[in-house]
Design goal:
single chain; about 200 residues; mainly alpha; Arc Repressor Mutant, subunit A; 2 strands; globular
């Protein structure tokens, strides 16, 4: 160090050696919280847990539809329609659509298939000859006797078992999810089996 020059000024102008640079830690990137592993080693991430629950829901109703197909040779929607006609003798196609919360054209296609297979009779009575009244036939009753319940399907049955505050909370939370997904709104009135 030369005479008369302050120490700090010498340090400020002297180049740093490689050894000094190596000891200086590099600036750290901001830390993102890592997903904590759970007991079984899977990620404890909330979104992943919700996704797993959706998979379980889809698997439950898909398994029910497959079981119906195997045991009675009909899809879940057809069995539900048969059970609705049995509970409401003389029901019309529009009323059936409302009871199943589906498009009227979807209900018409369901009825057409059931009539063709001899499970339901469609009578045109009254002043409006376009309106039909549906009646369950013996073959349809046999299908319902052989079909595993619930006839409405496992998801509608499970939803019907929930209390009103839970359903309202679920409706609100699913609305937020749908806002992020931006799905085709027409799918809201389609049959689960067709999705």
């Amino acid at each position: 160090m030369s005479k008369g020059r302050p120490y700090h000024s010498t340090m400020a102008t002297r180049p740093r050696s490689n050894a000094t640079r190596a000891r200086t830690p590099a600036p750290r990137a901001p830390r993102t919280p890592a997903a904590r592993p759970s007991r079984n080693g899977a990620s404890d991430d909330t979104a992943a847990q919700v996704l797993r629950r959706f998979r379980q829901v889809f698997k439950a109703f898909k398994s029910h539809f497959q079981q119906l197909e195997k045991e009675v040779g009909l899809g879940g929607a057809q069995v539900w329609a048969l059970s609705t006609v049995r509970a409401n003798p003389g029901i019309g196609v529009g009323e059936l659509a409302r009871a199943m919360d589906i498009h009227q054209s979807t209900a018409s296609n369901l009825v057409k298939a059931l009539v063709e297979r001899g499970f339901v009779r469609a009578d045109r009575t009254g002043d409006d000859r376009r309106a039909v009244q549906l009646t369950l036939l013996a073959a349809g009753r046999r299908v319902l006797q052989a079909a595993p319940g619930p006839f409405t399907g496992v998801l509608p049955q499970a939803l019907a078992s929930l209390d009103l505050p839970t359903l309202r909370r679920l409706r609100r939370d699913l609305a937020a999810l749908l806002a992020a997904l931006k799905p085709d709104k027409r799918a809201a009135r389609e049959l689960l089996a067709d999705l």
